[in-house]
Amino acid sequence: MNKQRIFMTALLFVGLTVAVTAVAQDQKMYSWTDENGVVHFSDSQPQGQQFSEQTIPNNPQPAADNPYQQVENQPSIAQQRRDEIAQKSQQAQVNQAVNSAQCSSWQAEVDRLEPNRRVFYTNEQGETERMDDVERTDKVAQLKNQIAKNCQ
User: How far apart are CA 7 and CA 1, in angstroms?
Assistant: First the structure.
């Protein structure tokens, strides 16, 4: 009885080894194109056809270029977009502040030039000169045009 038990255990071991080996082997896939140009795939070899053979591993490794995998130390695309929007918003606020300061400067110059008939300024040589009425009205018109175009 003891010999029979050893024989059954050995037989079971051999059977399991054969089964595991069959499962562990890579599978084959065959592909061929028929006369109509249609590509076919099969796990059995086609008869009378020219085919190509590919090996399919049992445990394929996951692709390294997984588009859903978060790369360490790199923000997601959504976070990149949020950062971009925040940066544009901040830049728009800075531009608005600069524009507001420029408009205020132009308006202050109009307020200085318009009511006065005698306007003095310092030229490039550092000498004080009087602005004539035509030059003053032209300057006021130019400033008002810039305010109309760039302010409000």
Answer: 10
3-state secondary structure of 53: strand
CB 55 within 8 A of CB 43: no
Across the chain, what does the average pLDDT equal?
79
Q: How many domains does the chain have?
A: 1
Q: How far apart are CA 13 and CA 6, in angstroms?
A: 10
Structural contact between residues 36 and 49, judged by C-beta atoms closer than 8 angstroms: no
Distance separating alpha carbons of residues 110 and 97, to the nearest angstrom: 20
Q: Is residue 52 part of a domain?
A: no
**Strand positions, DSSP E, the chain:** 27-33, 39-42, 52-56, 119-122, 128-131
The first and second tokens of residue 4, run together, are 């029979």
pLDDT at 84: 93
* Residue 131 belongs to a domain: yes
Residue written as token pair 């606020």: 93
* pTM confidence score: 0.44
8-state DSSP, 51: -
